[in-house]
Amino acid sequence: MRECRGFDGRFLMRIQNKISEKGQSITLFALMLPLMAEFILGLFDYMVTNAHTMEAVAVADLSAHAGAQEIRLLPNGKILSDVPSAERVAADYFRMQTPSYIQFVSVVCGDTAERPFCRVTARIRSAGYLFPSRPITVHAVGYLAWGVTREEQ
Prior knowledge:
The protein is an alpha+beta fold. The protein has helices spanning about 25-70, 85-95, and strands spanning about 1-5, 10-15, 105-110, 115-125, 135-145. A hairpin with a 5-residue loop joins strand 1 and strand 2.
């Protein structure tokens, strides 16, 4: 700063030109807003996709167990009842519970290692808010516990 005298003899203070800091916060805000919006969209995309996937897993798992409980066994562990009825029960159970965004793909019932099972396959699509929508496939397997039938539960 420099001092100088005015016309009436008093000292006046003259302020040197300083670089102004006005507008820095608005510039920072303008740069950060798109980044924050992208982060929030990505987070929202992940949360919705995760919620839909967890619901698809739950519905497929319950359907697979319902189908497995329909399988009738002989005392030696061989399958007595017809497998298509168990597959039909699993598919019907899936269709009764599923929301519109979960797609039924297939159901397979039978026995593996002499243990009755039903496998339900479902498909959903990711939310697609930030990232491109992509299919997600869910497989759920329900086994029949030894000695447990629908009547005993």
